[in-house]
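Protocol step 4 of 6: structure prediction from sequence.
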Amino acid sequence: MNKPQITIKDIARALNVSPSTVSRALKDNPDISQETRDLIHAYAREHNYKPNVLAVNLRASRSNTIGVIVPQLVHHFFSCVLSGIEKAAAEAGYNILVAQSNESYEQEVKIVHSFLAARVCGVIASLAKDTSQYDHYQDLLNNNIPIVFYDRICTGLKTERVVVDDYAGSFAAVEYMIQTGCKRILFYGAAPHLEITKNRRNGYLDAMKKYKIPVDDSMIMLCDTRERAISITPDILEGPGHPDGFFAINDETASGILYACK
């Protein structure tokens, strides 16, 4: 059976000194004599004393932990991003606290509030699909907690962002399809209020416009999951004016299209 972790009070009781003396000695406070400091350090080492990190953080009013919000870990993209964050944080001496919003605004708000309570030193976040209000993130900024958004970003707050050029990537992909002969390219997008959707849709539209290919409302659809792509694509392919190309908002949707086209 593991021995219970000793505390500052245990050390103080064993050495017949006050807990405040032990606490200051462990921090090498010069107000405590060198002899007493050496005695307390030796006893702490001998009994494998470990400081209570939570208590230290509470006193310091800020932890050495970064909160990370992931929409869904099951997505390969987000799991890869998380792996990179974890590696970079560890190299810089930080811990990470990971939470999934599961694409829910309400869950995202709860996570942010829990991060505030945990006194994280910063937050790295990608927005849930249905997040269109950002007061919870403003709460972080009001508490001097910096935010870095990635992939799905918020443009309404002054924060750092890590994104790819969604517009240029979309334009290049659609232009390539047009140059290979596609004329009726459907756009499978995500929630229209998301910046990633806006930028990729604009890239799609501008590429079609460049080659004078008309686009009607039926060519732009909300489809951002594998399941929905598998569900709607067969009927689209069998209907009148069926497409000869698809632009998928993400890899999961693309895999659903490929499955439906088999």
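Step 5 (inspection) to follow. The chain has three domains: 8-51, 60-162, 166-260.
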